[in-house]
TrEMBL record, chain A:
<dbReference type="InterPro" id="IPR036179">
    <property type="entry name" value="Ig-like_dom_sf"/>
</dbReference>
<keyword id="KW-0393">Immunoglobulin domain</keyword>
<keyword id="KW-0325">Glycoprotein</keyword>
<dbReference type="GO" id="GO:0042552">
    <property type="term" value="P:myelination"/>
</dbReference>
<dbReference type="InterPro" id="IPR013783">
    <property type="entry name" value="Ig-like_fold"/>
</dbReference>
<dbReference type="InterPro" id="IPR000920">
    <property type="entry name" value="Myelin_P0-rel"/>
</dbReference>
<dbReference type="InterPro" id="IPR007110">
    <property type="entry name" value="Ig-like_dom"/>
</dbReference>
<protein>
    <submittedName>
        <fullName>Myelin protein zero</fullName>
    </submittedName>
</protein>
<keyword id="KW-0472">Membrane</keyword>
UniProtKB/TrEMBL annotation, chain B:
<dbReference type="InterPro" id="IPR004032">
    <property type="entry name" value="PMP22_EMP_MP20"/>
</dbReference>
<keyword id="KW-0472">Membrane</keyword>
<feature type="transmembrane region" description="Helical">
    <location>
        <begin position="97"/>
        <end position="118"/>
    </location>
</feature>
<dbReference type="InterPro" id="IPR004031">
    <property type="entry name" value="PMP22/EMP/MP20/Claudin"/>
</dbReference>
<keyword id="KW-1133">Transmembrane helix</keyword>
<feature type="transmembrane region" description="Helical">
    <location>
        <begin position="130"/>
        <end position="155"/>
    </location>
</feature>
<keyword id="KW-0325">Glycoprotein</keyword>
<feature type="transmembrane region" description="Helical">
    <location>
        <begin position="65"/>
        <end position="85"/>
    </location>
</feature>
<protein>
    <recommendedName>
        <fullName>Epithelial membrane protein 1</fullName>
    </recommendedName>
</protein>
Length: 230, 160
């Protein structure tokens, strides 16, 4: 009986110690463009209350390297940023430890920052747990540089050009038609003075079809020039 | 007369080629490891040329104006060629090629705007480097399109 009690209590203790293991969460992978800032988030789950002695530490292992270096440490309520390594002046602590957030911000990433970042959080008395890794991939963006202003300027100028040409030809066409229809209505009203109006008609018609006349003239010119060229 | 016609034609086509080269080739400003321009930047990394983005500190509006006006110059020059051929066959004898001249004038204006803005705004700090091929071609196009425009405004159609 006593042995069973001892056994169950030990098992319970074992389970309890497992449940008090801290679980650290980060992203799996982060993608960033060269020159931008990237925020690596890290938070943890713990059965204990968030202690004032909570610590966060970040390590960095470059792609292809075997060892990792420490780049950030938060302890005793104060963040300590790396000021000698590859991230000096580029690392900023943007987390909120009282809210279990130990995120860091890396500014102006470059291709040399490709690698694995490891976040380790400890919440005393809850210190047993596995750190979590996030992989940083730095990309070049395929440039799509022509922006809105470029397209707008091109579109507006070409649109204006087409509009002006269209209005020009429309005006010519309308003027010709208007004069033509005016002469027709005059011809219709004055039924008696046929000859006079007929003369007017033909002269107006002659003026009113500049387009057709021009076409005829240019046809002649074309043939002339072709003949002369030959 | 035919020789004159051929010369004008060749001048116009040369303008088009130079404008297209200046607009498309990314070489307005160069250093030993970099060839940058109005669309993108080529950087020599580890013996290989990589196509990357123009950095963010460039004044964006001016860059886009240079892009837009150089593209417009190309468009106007190409349209001018077609208008020239059309006018060659349609205008009456003794008239000038005004429509074509207008297109060339617009092309001249646009490429001059592009080249001037680029010269005045970009790379004003004492950076290492020199102006590249596209920049030089742009300024040569300014001169050639101007000559072409004057030619069209003064030339009269005669029969060969």
């Amino acid at each position: 009986m006593l042995s069973v009690l001892a056994l169950t209590s030990m098992v319970l203790l074992g389970i309890a110690s497992q449940t008090t293991a801290i679980v650290v969460y980060t992203s799996w992978e982060r993608h960033a463009l060269v020159g931008t800032d990237v925020r690596l988030s890290c938070s943890f789950f713990s059965w204990q209350w968030t202690s004032p002695d909570v610590t966060f530490s970040w390590h960095y292992r470059p792609d292809g390297a075997k060892d990792s270096i420490a780049i950030f440490h938060y302890a005793g309520g104060a963040p300590y940023v790396d000021n000698k390594g590859p991230f000096r002046d580029r690392l900023e602590f943007v987390g909120n430890p009282s809210r279990r957030d130990g995120s860091i911000l890396i500014k102006n990433v470059d291709f040399a920052d490709n690698g694995t970042f490891t976040c380790d959080a400890k919440n005393p008395p809850d210190i047993a747990g596995r750190p979590s890794h996030v992989r940083l991939l730095v990309f070049e963006k395929v440039p799509v540089q022509a922006g809105v202003i470029t397209g707008a300027i091109i579109g507006v100028v070409l649109g204006l050009l087409i509009l002006i040409v269209a209005i020009y030809y429309l005006m010519r066409f309308l003027v010709a038609r208007r004069v033509f229809s005016l002469s027709m209505s005059k011809h219709g009203k004055k039924g008696k003075g046929k000859e006079g109006s007929q003369q007017k008609c033909t002269s107006v018609l002659a003026v009113a079809d500049p387009v057709k006349l021009k076409a005829a003239a240019s046809e002649k010119k074309k043939q002339e020039s072709r003949r002369e060229k030959k | 007369m035919l020789i004159l016609l051929a010369a004008i034609f060749i001048l116009h086509i040369t303008c088009i080629c130079l404008l297209l080269a200046a607009t498309i080739h990314n070489a307005w400003w160069m250093t030993d490891t970099m060839s940058t321009d109005i669309w993108a930047r080529w950087i020599l990394i580890g013996g290989k040329w990589s196509y990357t983005e123009i950095p963010g500190h460039y004044p964006k509006e001016y860059l886009q104006v240079v892009q837009a006006s150089s593209v417009l110059a190309c468009i106007f020059c190409i349209l001018g060629l077609f208008v020239f051929v059309a006018q060659l066959y349609t205008i009456p004898k003794g008239n000038r090629f005004l429509f074509t001249g207008v297109f060339q004038l617009l092309a001249w204006l646009c490429i001059m705007i592009a080249a001037s803005i680029y010269t005045d705004i970009f790379h004003k700090d004492k950076e290492q480097g020199w102006y590249g091929a596209s920049f030089i071609l742009a300024w040569i196009s300014v001169c050639l399109t101007f000559i072409s425009c004057i030619t069209y405004f003064t030339l009269r159609k005669k029969l060969a």
